[in-house]
Specification:
14 strands, about 30% helix, six-stranded antiparallel β-sheet, elongated, alpha/beta, Rossmann fold, about 400 residues, Beta-Lactamase, eight-stranded mixed β-sheet, 3 domains
C-alpha cells in the first residue's frame, strides 16, 4: 500500500514538473492560468478529480507563487519559514520549531529567492550575497547565498501579515490598562526583547491604540506594521542599487518624517545612528512616539540606545546623551517568548535617574516577575488633557 502511495506521489510530481515545463515554454507569466485544469486532464485523462485539484494547486503555486513553500505561507499558525542550505525546511508553528518532511534543492531555492527579490528591484549573487526584502503581505525575507552561506543558499521568511494580536492576549489586565493609558496619554515608549520575541507584533498592538484622527508616520526597514488608523503614512528604507547609489537609510527617513507634519512617529526598529534623530523627535514636540530595539530587558535597552547614539556621527558628550534619553523615553516594555512558545510582556519599566555615582540612566520596574502591574509610574502624561493613571490597575504588591 505504501509503495502504491509512493508511486502515485511520484507520478503526480512528474506530472506537475511536465506541466510546469510546458507552461514555461508558453511564457505562462503573460497568459491566463485558468486553463491549467483542462491541460492537466489532456495529459492524464484518468486522473481522479481530487488529484487534478491537487496538481492544479501545486502548479499554480509553482508558477505564480513561492512554489512548495506556499502551503506554509497559507497556514496562519506558521510564523516563520526557514530553508537551510538548499535542503531541509523548518517552520515555527505556535512558537515551536518543527522540521518538515519537505526538502528543496539548491536550484529550486535560488529560483524562489529570485522570484521574491526580482519584483523589488533587488539582486542577490556572489557580489552581493545577502539581501533583505519583503513579501506583499509585509512578511520579512532574508536570503543568504554562496560564498557567505557555506552549505548553500538559506532563506528565512518571518510572517508578520498573519499575526494581529490584542494587548490583552500578551499581558495581564493591569499591565494592559497601563500600556493603553500610556499610548493614549502620548508617552514615549520603547519595546525591547530578543530576536523573534514579538517586538514588532507588540508595537503593532500598541500603535493600534493611537487615535484615528492622528497623523502617524511609520519608518521601517521592511514595511511590516499594519496600523488601523485612517491617516497613516508608511516609509520604507531602501538599500543601494547595483550602481551603489539610491540608498535611503532609516536615519534619512526619520529626518524626513519630521518635515511631514506628524502627530506621532513610529520607528520599526532603532539599530544605529537614527537613535539620536528619534530622541530629538521625541524631545521636540512629537510626543507619543514608539519604537523597538534588541535588548534583554529595560536596563539593557537604555544602555543599548546609549551605545547606538554614540555610534552616530554626532559628537555629543556622554552626559548630554544620557540626559536626552532620560528626557525623551518614558516607559520601556519588554516582551519575551515563553517555554511553551507563547509571547508575553514580562516587564514594564519607567526611565528615571540612576542611583549610581556614574550618572547613568536608571529604570524603575513597575511589574512583578510574572509581568503583573505592582506600581504606577511617577511621570506625568505628556498629553495636555490626559487622565491620570488609576490605582485600580495595580494587581500585586511590590516585591521587597
Amino acid at each position: 500500500m505504501r509503495r502504491e502511495m509512493g508511486g502515485r506521489r511520484e507520478q503526480s510530481e512528474a506530472l506537475v514538473a511536465r506541466l510546469h515545463h510546458q507552461l514555461i515554454g508558453d511564457s505562462v507569466e503573460q497568459r491566463d492560468l485558468s486553463n491549467i485544469e483542462e491541460l492537466t486532464r489532456s495529459l492524464d485523462p484518468l486522473l481522479p478529480d481530487s488529484e487534478v485539484a491537487e496538481v492544479v494547486g501545486q502548479l499554480t503555486a509553482r508558477v505564480s507563487g513561492l512554489g512548495v513553500l506556499e502551503p506554509f505561507l497559507a497556514d496562519p499558525s506558521v510564523s516563520e519559514v526557514m530553508v537551510n542550505g538548499g535542503g531541509a525546511v523548518w517552520i515555527e508553528r505556535d512558537g515551536h520549531l518543527v522540521c518538515t518532511e519537505l526538502l528543496i534543492d539548491e536550484s529550486m531555492l535560488l529560483t524562489i529567492i529570485e522570484r521574491i527579490v526580482g519584483p523589488l528591484g533587488l539582486s542577490v549573487d556572489r557580489a552581493s550575497p545577502i539581501v533583505d526584502a519583503r513579501l506583499p503581505d509585509g512578511s520579512r525575507v532574508n536570503a543568504v547565498v554562496r560564498p557567505v552561506a557555506v552549505d548553500g543558499p538559506c532563506l528565512t521568511i518571518r510572517r508578520f501579515g498573519a499575526r494581529q494580536i490584542d494587548l490583552s492576549t500578551i499581558a495581564s489586565p493591569g499591565t494592559v490598562a497601563l500600556l493603553r493609558w500610556a499610548v493614549r496619554s502620548r508617552m514615549n515608549l520603547i519595546v525591547c526583547g530578543g530576536a523573534g520575541a514579538g517586538k514588532t507584533t507588540l508595537l503593532n498592538a500598541l500603535a493600534a491604540e493611537i487615535g484615528a484622527e492622528e497623523r502617524v508616520i511609520t519608518v521601517e526597514d521592511a514595511a511590516e506594521l499594519r496600523l488601523p488608523g485612517s491617516h497613516v503614512v508608511r516609509l520604507e528604507a531602501r538599500p543601494a542599487g547595483s550602481e551603489g547609489v539610491g540608498a535611503q537609510r532609516i536615519r534619512d527617513l526619520v529626518r524626513n518624517a519630521l518635515r511631514m507634519r506628524p502627530d506621532r512617529i513610529v520607528v520599526g526598529e532603532v539599530r544605529s545612528g537614527e537613535a539620536i534623530d528619534m530622541l530629538q523627535a521625541m524631545n521636540t514636540g512629537h510626543e507619543g512616539s514608539l519604537s523597538t530595539c534588541h535588548a534583554n530587558g529595560p536596563a539593557d535597552a537604555m544602555r543599548r540606545l546609549e551605545t547606538l547614539v554614540l555610534m552616530g556621527d554626532v559628537a555629543l558628550p556622554l552626559g548630554a546623551i544620557r540626559e536626552q534619553l532620560r528626557s525623551a523615553i518614558d516607559l520601556v516594555v519588554c516582551i519575551a517568548r515563553q517555554p511553551d512558545g507563547s509571547r508575553r510582556v514580562v516587564s514594564v519599566a519607567e526611565v528615571c535617574e540612576s542611583s549610581t555615582v556614574d550618572g547613568g540612566i536608571g529604570v524603575s520596574v513597575l511589574t512583578d516577575a510574572s509581568g503583573a502591574l505592582c506600581t504606577l509610574p511617577s511621570r506625568r502624561p505628556r498629553g495636555p488633557f490626559a487622565a491620570v493613571a488609576s490605582p485600580a490597575w495595580i494587581e500585586s504588591s511590590p516585591s521587597r
